[in-house]
């Protein structure tokens, strides 16, 4: 338990008078806020309710991650096969046994051959698995305009329209970038990107600003829903009990089951939902950090960053790496916890992970890109059912809009 909560605790920046401690119970996490006081008052406690569905997402990804890891090892070899005796060299002694169990458990994906004196035992993909794996280049091709669009948006949000390459590489899997994107993708689009040295670091620079891309995923959703561009009067529209509000500056709220907001909370939330704020695509240096509008803008930046990823999530350390590029608050974790209707932090897995709540329906990701659809198709050979939403997403209005706008990059 202590190891799981330490990753969150380490995120509390600025070791000052206040520090947050987290205590996990079966259904929630207790946040105990120490306060310096001569009166010896008891620390205030707030409950951070757990979302069991999003916690379960982290558990459900363990087996597929191993399957895809072994697949990539097999495909990295010249003859697309790995000798079982060499598996330890690839993954280490302990992990080798996990992969051996995986090979035995999923004969529909992995085939073990050889075993005679002339041919030592080896593992390769089955014919059906190899056929699906051969479709990956097509999925990558469909992903390219989406990746170019998202990379441009990522750079447009940064303070100097540039991001160190090492930080882009830190989230390359989350974005869906190929491992060699620096050589295979960036040089193909010199009108958009360039790599320049800044203070001894290679940085990805934006070469062309496109105001048509300076529209957030939140704004696209509101436009599709027909939300008016100005706040309605308080008499016409009031905030609902679930925290949602129909206004141009509102965020989608999805509070975890068990959280019951009282009237004072809802009144404060309504004022926040109505508060206008600058676009995440405007230079953050022009705003005063203490301004409530600037603080709400930070929430929009975090929302947009997560929206640009394939699975609408990042680890806490990945978000933390972009402090200087997006001028994120020093107490990033507290910001995420405060807006628990928008973001969810889970300690499941090796690292704490931040989810964008509105992008998920239970354990399912609502919108999927071509690469995720391909991955689901491959993993489905293990007997795991492909998400029901996959086929629906390909023809959904917001997906069609994103893909069509991305495809214009080639025009």
UniProtKB/TrEMBL annotation:
Pfam families, alphabetized: PORR
Residue intervals of the PORR domain: 49-383
InterPro entries, per the entry: PORR_domain, PORR_fam
One MF term in the entry's GO annotations: RNA binding
Stated name of the protein: PORR domain-containing protein
